């Protein structure tokens, strides 16, 4: 077994959730039976927000529970969707009488279980809306019959702006609409130098040669369609940025929110090199990075890699992004 800081791998998720909540006792509470992390003080008279998915992507989603973001996060096993029952209980816990927005990354299990939970919650008179996050450009095949793009780091932006809109008193449809607007505009590209390893496993999910880079990797360790030769930080950044710019059609004078996201074991110096190249490239093109995050926010266990997310900004999205937030992983 590859060494990791773990007790019994089967107890990893519940023990980690307990550790998170114990570390933020005035902010978070834990509902152990269904693995729900909730706000300690339940919000009143606002639209509720629930999100979740497989564990292994921390701080997503539990790290974004708090004022100005999520009311509830539902945790499945590592890289496995939470059950429909878990999501149902999470939806009930998020409900404050004005309906609940379910923020869902576009993976088959997550989508299915959130939809089932949304349908069942109607029996309890809870109105729900789903916001589907599908920002991964590497999986944009153009085939409407397929599963579509995966959901990745743009989830952080969706959770933030939806949370801010809910705190302002927006109704259910308004909160969902702003989340969908972000999801439809955001795009992400990722690469990995090394795959992550499940706790308890003896080997990583895939192996790369010393001169290979996985371009377009998924946050569950999904293999990419392309392997490219290793190169320096600026050239690796260009591999991510060039297709994003081509897809988004940004023009001189446009403004964006940019996320340089570590996928697990990329260290801050590496991420700042990516940020440096990104700023220089966009400045040369006359595109302003008006807001940004640099750090590890949506991870894939200990994958050594990085993702780059761009979201075109307007006045409303900027205001919602800047609104106060207090969560374990994001606070201002």
Describe this structure in words.
- The structure is a single chain.
- 52% of the residues are buried.
- Helix 2 (84-94) packs across helix 3, helix 4 (154-168) runs antiparallel to helix 5 and helix 6 (233-248) crosses helix 7 (268-284).
- 32% of the residues lie in helices and 23% in strands.
- The longest helix is centred in the C-terminal third of the chain and has 17 residues, at 268-284.
- It has 332 residues and is an alpha/beta fold.
- The protein has a six-stranded mixed β-sheet with strand order 1-2-4-3-5-6, sandwiched between helices.
- The mean pLDDT is 95.
- It has eight helices and twelve strands.
- The termini are far apart.
- The chain has two domains: 9-185, Dihydroxyacetone kinase, domain 1 (Rossmann fold, 3-Layer(aba) Sandwich); 187-320, Hypothetical Protein Tm841, Chain: A,domain 3.
- The protein has helices spanning 12-23, 84-94, 108-121, 154-168, 172-185, 233-248, 268-284, 315-322; strands at 28-31, 36-39, 48-55, 72-78, 100-105, 128-133, 187-194, 212-215, 226-229, 255-262, 288-295, 304-312.
